[in-house]
Amino acid sequence: MKKILSFVAVAAMSLSLFGLDIFNFVQINGNVKNYTQIDYDIGSKFGNLTRTPVLKTVTALDGAGRAVEITELSARDAVLSKISNKYDVYGNLTEQNCYDADSKLLWRNVITYSNGQKSDTSEYDRNGLLRSKTIYTYADGKLSEETGYDGDGALLWKIVYKYNANGKYSEVCEYSADGTLDIQETYSYSDDGKVESLVTYDTYSEQTDRKVFRYASNGTLSEVTTYDSAKQVTNRLILKYDAGGNLSKLSEYNIAQKFGTTVNELISMSEYTYQ
After folding, report:
1. Percent of the chain at pLDDT above 70?
2. Whole-model pTM?
3. 31 closest CA partner among 241, 244, 247
4. Strand pairing partners for 100?
5. Hey, which residues does 203 pair with through a beta bridge?
6. How far apart, in whole angstroms, are the C-alpha atoms of residue 78 and residue 249?
């Protein structure tokens, strides 16, 4: 099923590169009311790199810094889709409604809670029919399992969470409906609690990669480097920040052997502005 996204995010749209939701690793500073992400298509013309904006995502925040509206637009600012989020008095996300360019409902998520913990998420289609349900199970106050079902109640997948002595993820495993392992993620941390590495094993491709997180002297994430099973660098994600300490640019590079040398090949880029 490949449902796992590292530090699974509920409502992210176009916020990630190679499966990492970057705003789970960097914070937004200041009194930000909204931020805009522009994604670029990277090409080449006569040996020179070109970049073309292909997608814009505008996220509106409330006074508590919660995403209340996420709008996807084309490069020409035409609305493609919009997600509206609702929260309860405790700050819990309780409802998401996704609309198309004509403001017609595409899908709706309803999230319920018990004793302050999320108990289930139900996804409905535009006609109000149940498409899927995710049920959350806890042990010692921490999420231990997510179980996904289709609209008829048939098991689709299960994610099992394990934690270290400090209460942080140590292992996240996703299983198919028949109980076979799909993806396994193993986390390690620095002494100050920051993610240091993430090892992923994909049973479908039978490949293992290791992502190493590097931080600047001020503690902000500056680079994520991916190594293959032979310990060769295959990918780099470089983060840049503005004067206010907010993420301003994400650049992703593939590392490849070309024309007899090792090259850092830019393959994607996103830029961020804040208001």
Report:
1. 93
2. 0.88
3. 244
4. 81
5. none
6. 23
